[in-house]
Specification:
126 residues; mainly beta; seven-stranded mixed β-sheet
Length: 126
């Protein structure tokens, strides 16, 4: 079992950048496929980005493609979400998630993930 803790959220102006981190404890992240999701008030949790356990495959939601980058640092047992060119519509609570994969693929749905962090707030002002 793995425990996930997000950090790096905050308040930023439109056009700015933030780097979210997801620290894992309990097990090494090299065994897991990782994902980032976000949820704005009154909306469903939305897929943002995913990376396969090997790091060889990544996938992004249409609204963040070209602006966000997902990565993992196995030495630090962390996953990251680099967010550039932020927009007010990126405002949400961001969650990282982990799942033991059946193959080297990405997972893009909330129901595919077993382990979740508590979330970190990202607010983008206009």
């Amino acid at each position: 079992q793995v425990q996930l803790v997000e950090s790096g959220g905050g308040l930023v102006q439109a056009g700015g950048s933030l780097r979210l981190s997801c620290a894992a404890s309990g097990r090494t992240l090299t065994s897991y496929a990782m994902g980032w999701f976000r949820q704005a008030p009154g909306k469903e949790r939305e897929f943002v980005a995913a990376i396969s356990w090997s790091g060889g495959r990544t996938y992004y939601g249409d609204s963040v493609k070209g602006r966000f980058t997902i990565s993992t640092n196995n030495a630090q047992n962390t996953a990251h979400l680099q967010m550039n060119s932020l927009k007010p519509e990126d405002t949400a609570v961001y969650y990282c998630a982990a799942e033991i994969p059946d193959s080297d693929r990405v997972f893009t749905n909330t129901f595919e993930y077993t382990y979740w962090g508590q979330g970190t707030q990202v607010t983008v002002s206009s």
